[in-house]
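User: My instructor asked us to take a sequence, write out its structure as tokens, and then describe one feature of it. I'm not sure where to start. Here is the sequence I was given:
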Amino acid sequence: MALKFTTRNFSPVFLITSICLVIFLAAPMCRLCASKEFPTFRELLESGELDEEFKEELAEGPLFPSSPEEFSSVKIEPEGPTNYTLTQNEEVQATVPASNLAEKVIRIGRVPFMSTKQMMSQYKGLIEFLKEQLGVKEIRIVTGKNYAKVLEALGRGTIDFAWVGPMAYVIGGNKYPLIPIAQAKRRTGTTYRGLFITRSDSKIKSIKEIPGKIMGFVDPESASGYLYPLYLFKLYKINPHKDCSKVVFLKKHDAILEAVLSGKIDVGVCLEDTITTIKDRKIRQQIRVLGMTHKVPSDIMACRQDCDPTLRDMFQAALLKTGWLKQKPDPSTGLPAILEFLPIYDSDLNTTRGVLKAVNHLRQP
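Assistant: Let's start with the prediction itself. The structure tokens for your sequence are:
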């Protein structure tokens, strides 16, 4: 038996009425999506409202303590990864079969933020763990003069991975196609701050009094040691390259501390752990903290987009396993014996990109 299908002719009036109804119902939704109550990150940047967004953070607590004693009472709460959290029961596996890496020497580029000897001692446990997990011949930490040199080495293929600050990753991503693999977990979680410091006997009592003085930064691509401090200067309407008598870059965070204590610079900016981990009370008493930067995302382990997928996936899997290890803190640092790493996504660094755009006009000429 054949099936018969019937068609129905729609009148022009019915079609026009239907279209008008769809437009009428869709209009409120479009207005909602475009509402100023839900601005996109790009809209915040273009409207200049990003500053206001960060100013709200200034009201969170005493960001500008006047003495080391007051600073020691400031609590910085640890933060977890932004978009994704691994549970201890999950398995991290390479998405492609592992290749024979028994003869591979993995090179990780890193800028020394302390003496090379101290840094290598701190990373000893991590290096041994990764070597065991990957079954490679050797893992080497290759130090670079600055972030730019490390990223150049990654771009040339001289090193396999780059361990860089968030701002260096963002800047380097404009030149090289990069992929974030994992984010280091610090004592303060996945964020930290930079500190403005001077000698306790200095006449400088606040950031507003820095113009006219010798200012010390770490590196032109350092987040906590230059670019996030520039953002705070921007809020104070200060251009250090024009308003300070001299600006110097000292490459290492502990070099900033030494230069302040010796009087070679009047004010310096360094990683908060540079100050909070000082054990000698007499030295701490010689330091006055003038202010803190906004929260900075922790360091990023990255590779180029054309990195061998097998190596990349195995390396990432090994890094993420560090978060599951039950470790006793190292008495000397208070950190796990093996530095922990957590998931990271490129979109997690959008705020860092916003800070970079906001301070581009203030950067080193």
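For the description part of your assignment, you could build on this observation: The first strand starts at residue 105 and ends at 110. Try explaining in your own words what that tells you about the chain.
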